[in-house]
Amino acid sequence: MRKLFYMLPLAAIAWLSSCQEQPLTTFGDDHYIYFDKYYVDEKEPGKHTADSTFASFFFLSDDVDAVDAALMVHMAGRNLTKDETFKLRVVPEGTTATPDEYKLEDTYTFRARATEANATNRTDTILIKMYRRPRLKDLPKGVRLMVELVPEGGLLLGQTERTRAVVILTRDAIKPAWWNTEVKELLMGEYSPRKYKLFVMHIDPTASFNEEMLKDTPWKARQLVQKFKEWLGKHPDKAVEEDGTPITVNV
């Protein structure tokens, strides 16, 4: 067994260390990059599940046609001595977005920066530009973009389950779990994306109205809805659904 261990290439030993995210005193000078989120469930040890990065126009005004999706990239290995570049490639079988709904840069940069001695990896963030197109309003679940890392120069691919990333672009927010029958009948009325957007933009910009507020301080929730009712009354031209139906609440 000892002989077999010493026959392993140094790169393989570094790879095993990076997968386990041990402190970065790895052998050799290899650098492995991988996304922060898993695009599929982790195989070993199997504790992490697949996750996506969401980008939405929900909190933006209707005349904004582009939004950035931020992807966090990790690197395992020794400190870089210079900036290294890598590329992203679209994975067609995991993508429903059309080419005019996103823009990938020719290259992305992982910056050479010092890291604390006990760090398990280094981190940088890249942005993918996502665009609003007319069909997005008819797609409640949005469009999906899957990309994979294409390392260059001194970079190598890291953990397999994190070599790809999924971006979901939506026009509206997903209906909050707290907007249940009780909230519908006693406070906010019927849910609609436009109603919720107006409520957040003009009354509750920090999105403090949530399950915790409803449970611990329901009077605050009622106050927010009353303020929203007043705002709706003062702005009848804006207080309408997309089909022109008046927006109302039940307080």
Q: Topology as H/E string?
A: HHEEEEEEEEEEHHHH
Molecular shape: elongated
Reported for the largest beta sheet, the result is:
5 strands, mixed
The residue ranges in which pLDDT falls below 50 over 5 or more consecutive positions are 1-27
- Distance separating the two termini: 73 Å
Radius of gyration: 24 Å
Number of DSSP helical runs:
6
Strand content: 15-25%
- As laid out across the biggest beta sheet, the strand order is 5-7-3-1-9
Quick check: average pLDDT? Answer: 87
Number of strands: 10
SS content category = alpha+beta
Secondary structure: helix percent: 10-25%
Brief synopsis:
The chain is α+β, with helices and mostly antiparallel strands and 251 residues long.
Describe the protein's architecture and organization:
The chain is of the alpha+beta class and 251 residues long. Helices cover 23% and strands 25% of the residues. It has helices at residues 2-7, 10-19, 181-188, 193-202, 211-216, 218-234; strands at 31-35, 53-56, 66-77, 84-90, 102-103, 108-110, 122-131, 143-151, 155-157, 164-170. The longest helix has 17 residues, at 218-234.
Compile the SSE list and pairings:
Blueprint: H1 2-7, H2 10-19, E1 31-35, E2 53-56, E3 66-77, E4 84-90, E5 102-103, E6 108-110, E7 122-131, E8 143-151, E9 155-157, E10 164-170, H3 181-188, H4 193-202, H5 211-216, H6 218-234
Parallel strand pairs: 1-9, 2-10
Antiparallel strand pairs: 1-3, 3-7, 4-6, 4-8, 5-7, 8-10
Which structural traits does this protein have?
about 250 residues, disordered N terminus, 5-stranded mixed beta sheet
